[in-house]
Amino acid sequence: MQATKTASALIVLFIITAKLAASDYAVNANAREASMLCTLVSWAGQRSKWNPDSEQETDDVDDILNLNMSLADDEWRKLFITDDTEPQPVKYNTNKHKQITDSADTWAEWARQATETGTPKKQDEIKKKLKLEHITNEQLQVAKNEIIRLAAELQVIKDSTKGGTSTSETVDETKVQKEINSVVYGEEKEPEDTALRTTNFGTAKSTRDAMCDGSSSDPKVKTVLGILACICLADNTNNGQKQGKVCAGNTGITDQTWNPTNTQTPPQGALAALLKICPRQGEQKLTADKLPTAVDAISSLLTYDNAAGYIGIHQGAGCTAAQNAGMCVKYTDLANAQKDPKEAIGWLKKPSTLATNMAAAEAAAVRKSEATRQLNIKAKMLHSLVNSATVGQQPGVSGAAQTQTEQAEKAAKKQKECTAHKDNKKACTEAKCSWKGGESEKGECKVGESKVKEEVKIENSDKEGASNTTGSNSFVINKVPLLLAFLILE
């Protein structure tokens, strides 16, 4: 009989204990939600680093465009600059200049080039920057057509990177940081831990359940930090069922100072304690694809019934954090999952929009990076083009001086041949030398200066015919594709 009473008592005790245990919130019940929301917190402040630009344009590109302008006729360059001692760019005037170009941007670029090459000193500086100071102006004129062609290609590629930039492509790292801060804190700059309270909730209400309502018609909780408060913080009334442990394990968040009835929003100390569960140290490398991943993960954690959609544990009796109720945020306009939360929830929509803009900017950066790579490759061709076009000239020697040198070398060589025919009129004349002995068989055999000049002229003409068939050096025309292929492979 006694044994039966003891067994009955144990059964009753077990049932009571089970009921008490069932009334507690499970440790880490909202840990997944908190973890995903903390991902956004970790990106806030100035921790997010996002810079899609990679390839940088070499200075040689603008220098080559300037070099090309320096080789133009003075009359052309003077259209774009003033007559001052230090020339200034002439501003575009449609009435005066539309016959030259109908593009103010093109005019501005030409004016820049003309200004930066407006004096002989500036032109010499351009040559020095391009490591062409050993090339004479005469040699550059020989290579002028090749430089014009290269500059034209560079300008076309450069122009392709301008224009067509939508607003979505103008986002930068600072704008990204501001947008994320507005999602997390409701303001563009991450506040100090001593100033967290003001922007996370809307119109004050006297109950926790009312404050943790994010419905789009009149959202009371508007930020990630506000959501975290609703799903993670115990309050001064509801704290006996492990409410402080639903996000942070057995250690939990011990702060219980939130009094929804009196202060409505969580106090400063409670929010500061809450943020300690989120990593906020170190830089975070951000890309456009990371934001949709986070948004999708958060959206997937919502639950629904015929009254609302919920973030956080919901046990059927509102988001009061009371026993057997819920630690959550409710969205009445998401009842029965009738809307896409990524569109209906304001703070969740912002990262999606930001991701779209970032993706557009990243795509634009890829296009610009590839164009810049082409610019830099082509810029490397300058020296090969100049050297190839001037291959027939000695460095530092003009065409006339080079011809005189060739004539002198030819005459010296011919004189040796003619001297061997001294006292032999027949041999001398057959060798096309000049006989200095009259009708006598005794005399001097000399070089004929006019004949040497004619031979040099004929030889130079033959060289030009073999190497210059279209007004441009055929070596350049034939070798440029191979050179470009080599540079690309390099």
TrEMBL record:
Stretch list, region Disordered: 436-471
One cellular-component annotation, GO: side of membrane
Predominant place of localization: membrane
Pfam family, one: VSG_B
Compartments reported by the entry: Cell membrane
This protein's UniProt keywords: Cell membrane, Glycoprotein, GPI-anchor, Lipoprotein, Membrane, Signal
InterPro entries named among the record's database cross-references: Trypano_VSG_B_N_dom, VSG_C_dom_sf
Entry protein name: Variant surface glycoprotein 1125.4235
